[in-house]
Design goal:
Keywords: Metal-binding, Zinc, Zinc-finger. The chain is an alpha+beta fold. It is built from ten helices and 32 strands. It has four domains: 136 residues, no CATH class; 48 residues; 39 residues, Double Stranded RNA Binding Domain (2-Layer Sandwich), CATH 3.30.160; 290 residues, TolB, C-terminal domain (Neuraminidase).
Length: 557
């Protein structure tokens, strides 16, 4: 923990030094600028240094660009003083100093923080409640239930801790979206809209915002990794307040205006706006959702494991009401449970695969299901393989099946006739999930912890690689992928660990795979798709074990 904080603080100091050298160092004396003066060519120098350059001449050349200028009637004092840049540097300096102090406070408030103090009113009573109304002070059971604080908002310490952590994760996710908007404005784009002076101002302010974000994220990371509930309760409110202030500052600055200009016409995924509870007595508690797909407007298909030898296909509407449901026993035994994945084939049909080697087409209107075992009609499929994903090319009516063992994609038609094998480039180990868009295949290479866009014309080749999200999370691997009707791409990235780790949804544009949005999501959200509704297209994330589907709006930015 300490090394992480020290590294970030050092990085912040290095950033400060770089800003000082690039924007606040006088190129004449090579020192920090004092009383900086701005020439018409928009280069800056110390007032005293300019006086030495100008001396008694009426005209002089800029020491940097050699542009000739006329000396003002008031001499050097006639040039504009650059107070704004000085103010920004002072703000950055304060941020770095505060970060150093906060680092010590967080380390002191980590896992070694003492347990909650005894009740203030009853000194001998241990505190097991926290009074939110009174600023998260510790109170005993008597005060919280029948005593002084009984009419206040009193919560058990462990319950309040969970609530505060959820708020913190949501706040950091929201803040990161604003940070990314700032990062997407390049200096060149800014110069095309403003003059050079304004461009430099924006660059410095962007660095200031990044430092403030790093400062907040460092504190949040320490709190989230702490095992002390009391520490989390006491430190989280201040972090939330600082996060909200930074978001307000970003929103009110020129950055937000530039971001809207640069991103006009883009679709952005929002934080969770709803939740579909799948309502069915037949949907048992030990069932899983391993895959999700949409068909006609407002109708969703979920597939997954039902028991040790059966899987399910469930069709429900946007309200969670089951329309159809059937369980399917697999034809052959296998060492792994029968996980079932799916992908939309047409408005009325869904392609689906089930471990070990079943591929099929489910007809939504009548609930009929046709299936085949891949090994029975494809000699290139051996007994050690098992299916990992399925994708479709609706325009051609093709079904693509990926397996666990190599880069081969097995392609079938709607009647489940084997067509051919597509061999992915050697850079890819094996596909965990796919999305086929014409001649492009987007591949989640979970084993290689990378995601790619592959061009399939003639010899398949990697066109570009998707950048990983930047939440400060290590060991991220792409898990699931989908594409909306506007061709924006969504990938679920998982923190790979011994247990199922944190999940991040990242949003990309198809042209070049630029990362434009990212957010932390429910750890159980293991499947992803989009759904057309009467209120526009939605992004759906299905929980594997909770019988829930989390809904996110897709809005135009």
């Amino acid at each position: 923990m300490a090394s992480n904080d020290t590294t970030l603080a050092s990085a912040s100091s290095a950033t400060l030094r770089k800003i000082e050298e690039d924007y606040f160092q006088c190129s004449i004396c090579l020192e920090g600028m004092e009383d900086p003066k701005l020439l018409p060519c928009l280069h800056r120098f110390c007032a005293e240094c300019l006086k030495a350059v100008i001396q008694k001449t009426k005209k002089f050349k800029c020491p940097l660009c050699k542009t000739e200028h006329v000396k003002p009637a008031k001499g050097v004092d006639g040039f504009k003083t650059d107070f704004a840049m000085k103010n920004i540097l002072e703000d950055i300096q304060k941020s770095v100093e505060t970060l150093e102090l906060e680092k010590k406070q967080i380390l002191a408030g980590g896992d070694n923080t003492p347990k909650p103090p005894n009740c203030q009113e009853h000194k001998d009573n241990p505190s097991n409640y926290c009074c939110v109304s009174c600023g998260n002070i510790a109170v005993c059971n008597h005060c919280g239930t029948v005593g002084t604080h009984s009419r206040h908002n009193c919560q058990k310490i462990e319950d309040l801790c969970r609530a505060e952590v959820d708020k913190l994760i949501e706040a950091i996710a929201k803040l990161l979206q604003y940070k990314d908007k700032v990062q997407h404005i390049s200096l060149q784009e800014t110069r095309e809209k403003e003059d050079i002076y304004t461009s430099s101002f924006v660059v410095i302010e962007k660095e200031s915002i990044k430092l403030r974000y790093d400062y907040i994220w460092t504190r949040a990371k320490c709190v989230l990794e702490s095992n002390n509930d009391w520490s989390k309760i006491q430190l989280t409110p201040k972090i939330l307040s600082e996060s909200e202030k930074l978001i307000r500052d970003i929103s009110s600055s020129a950055h937000e205006i530039h971001s809207r200009d640069v991103s006009a016409g883009r679709i952005y995924v929002t934080q969770q706006t709803g939740c579909i509870d799948i309502l069915a007595t037949r949907f048992k508690s030990d069932w899983e959702i391993n895959g999700i797909a949409s068909c006609r407007k407002g109708v969703v298909v979920a597939t997954g494991k039902a028991s040790q030898d059966t899987s399910h296909i469930s069709v429900f509407d946007i309200k969670g009401i089951i329309i159809q449901q059937r369980t399917i026993k697999r034809k052959k035994t296998f060492r792994f449970i029968p996980k079932r994945y799916c992908a939309s084939l047409t408005a009325l049909k869904v392609a689906t695969v089930c471990i070990p080697d079943e591929v099929g087409v489910y007809n939504v209107p009548d609930g009929s299901y046709k299936r085949r075992n891949i090994g029975e009609n494809c000699s290139q499929w051996d007994g050690n393989k098992y299916v990992m994903c399925v994708a479709t090319d609706p325009d051609k009516g093709h079904i693509f099946v990926g397996s666990n063992s190599n880069r081969a994609l097995f392609v079938f038609d709607e009647r489940l006739n084997f067509i051919h094998v597509v061999s992915l480039p050697d850079l890819i180990k094996w596909p965990r999930d796919l999305s086929v868009q014409g001649d492009l295949i987007f591949v989640c290479d979970f084993s290689g912890k990378r995601a790619f866009a592959v061009q399939t014309l003639q010899q398949p080749r990697v066109v570009y690689e998707f950048r990983k999200p930047s939440f400060g999370l290590a060991n991220l691997a792409p898990f699931r992928i989908c594409v909306d009707e506007n061709m924006f791409i969504y990938i679920i990235w998982e923190v790979v660990s011994t247990d199922e780790g944190q999940l991040v949804v990242a949003q990309y544009v198809q042209q070049g795979g630029e990362l434009i949005n990212q957010m932390l999501v429910n750890k159980d959200a293991r499947s992803i798709t989009t759904l057309k509704t009467t209120k526009g297209e939605k992004l759906l994330l299905a929980a594997r074990t909770e019988n829930k589907v989390f809904v996110h709006d897709l809005v135009r930015g």
